[in-house]
Amino acid sequence: MIKQLRYILLLAWICLTAAPVSAKRDQETIVLDEEDIFKFDSLFIESFRQKNVDNLLMATNMMLKCYNINPESPAVCYGLGELYILGGNDEGALYFLRRATKLDPDNYHYLATLAHWYSKHKETSQAIDAYEKILEKFPEREDAFYDLSMLYSGSGQYRKAIEVINKMEKRMGMSRNFTMEKARLHLQMNDRRGALAEMDALIRRFPQDAMLWVYKGDIEMLYNRRASALNFYNKSMEISPENGYALVALYEYYNKEHDPKQMEDYLQRVFKAKDIEFENKMQFLQGAINFYSQPPQVRLDQIEQIFLSMIESEPENPTAHFIYADMLMHLKRNEEAKEELRTATYLDPECSDCWWNLFKITYEEHDSTGMHQILKDAMDAVPESPEFYYFSGVLAMEERRDSAAYFFLKKAENYMDAYTQKEMAFVCYKFLSSLELRIKADKLACMNYLQKALSMNPKDAGVLNDYAYYMALDNLDLERAEKMSAQAVDQDPLNASFLDTYAYILMKRKQYHNAFFYIQRAMEYDKETPKNPEITEHFGDILYFLGSQEDAMRCWWQSLNDGNESEALKRKIQNQRYEE
Prior knowledge:
This protein is an all-alpha fold.
C-alpha cells in the first residue's frame, strides 16, 4: 500500500514538473507517442528509485535516457543537474541547471538550486544575479532575501545588504536578528551612528531588553567612548541587576580603567550569574584564575569562591563539581574532593574523568578496599572504558589473583585502542603474556602477546628478554633470539635474568665458552636467596657441555633443592646427562 502511494505521488509530481507531451524546440514541436510516454515515465520513476538507494550511476543513466526521449523536459534537466551535483560533476550540473531554468523560468526550486550552486562555488556575482531574479518573481521568499543579504555582506557590499534586510523587515516587520545584523554591517562600514541608530530602533521596540543596552555600550567601547559605554552598561544593570553579560562588560570596562577593586567585584558576580552559559563561564575561568594568581600574593580563597559560585549557580552541572574537585585535589584536600567527585558521578554516571580522579585519590591513599569499589562502580557505569578493567587487572596482578587479572585484562584488551592508548596496551600485553603461560601453559599465546608488546615498544628490555628466551626454548631462529637478548643485556648489563637468557641462547648455539662467561656473571649478580634455581640449572647445562659432568650434576641437584620442579631437570638428574 505504501509503495503504491509513493508511486502515485511520484507520478503526480512528474505530471506537474515534466514537460508536456508536446514541447517547443527551435520553433518546432516534439510530439511523443504513447510508447515514448510510457517509456519516459518508467525511466523517470526508476531513476528516482535508483537515486534513493544511492545508485547514482544507474540513476544518471536512466535520466539521460529520459533526456534523449524529451530534451525539452525541465524536470529531466533539473534531475540531471541534481544527479551531477551529487556525483561531483560541476560542469554537467551547471549546464543542466541553467537549461532547466531556461525551460521553466518560473520554477522556484530550479532557480534556487542554481543560485545555491553559484554561491557554493564562490561565483558571487552570478549568485547575486540569480537571487535577485528569484526575488523579482517570488518576493515572498524570506530565505532568498536572507541568502542575498549574506552574499552582499560577504562581498563587502554592506549598503546593499542593508537595503535587502530593510526590504525583509518591510515585508515581515521588525526583527531583532535582522536589525542586529544591520548594526553589524554599519560597524563594518565604520558607521558608529548608523549602528547606534539600529540599536535605538530595537530599544524603542523592546525597552526592557537589558542586552540591547549592553550592545550599545559595546559599540561605544569600540570607539573608546568609555563614559558613554559605562552609562549604557549601568542602564542595563538598572533593568536587570544580575544580567551576566552586563557584569562581564563592566568587568572588562574596569579592567581597561585599571580599577582592580571594581574588577574584582564584577568578576565574582559573573560566576554567580544564571543567564551566562556554563561553557562561557569556563572560557572566562582561566582569566579569573590568572587575575587572582598575580604576585605578590596568590589568593586561593577568591579562586575557590569562584568555583563555589559556579556550583551555586548550576548545582546540577557535573562539570562544576568536577573542576572544583580538581582544585581540591591540587590542594591535597582529598576528602572534600571525593565528595565533589561522588556528586559529579551521581549527576553523570558516565563521567570517566570523575571516576578516574576518584580512583587516583584512593590509589594515593593506598586504600585497597576503596580502589576495588570505585573500579567496580566505574565498570558498571562506563562498561566500555578500558582503563578501569586495566587497573582492576593490574591490582589483581599485584595481589597474585591470576584468574581475576586475566579476566580484567582481556576485557581491557577488547575495549582499548592500541594505537591511541599505547602505554596501556603495552603493559596489558606484557601481563597477558605471562598469564597465558601461568594459567593456560599456552606458550604460543604467550609469544603472540609478547610480539604485540614489541610492536608497541620494540626496545623494551624485559619483553626482548622474554621473547628471546621462549624462542630459545623451542629452538626457533636462535640467531634472532641472540640479537634480541643482546639488546636487553646492553640496556641492563647487571640484570641476572637477562644475562642468564643470553648465556642460555649462546649455549644453544654451541658457543659454550662465551655462554660460561655470561652465566658466571648471572650467578654473580643474582641477589636472590637462595639463588634463582633456573639460573643454577642453566649453569649446570653449560658446565655439562664444557665436559664438567660432576659440577653439572651438583648444579642440577642444587636447582632441584632450591625449588625447581621442571620435569626436564628431573630427567637430567636421573639420566645424568643434558636433556631438553
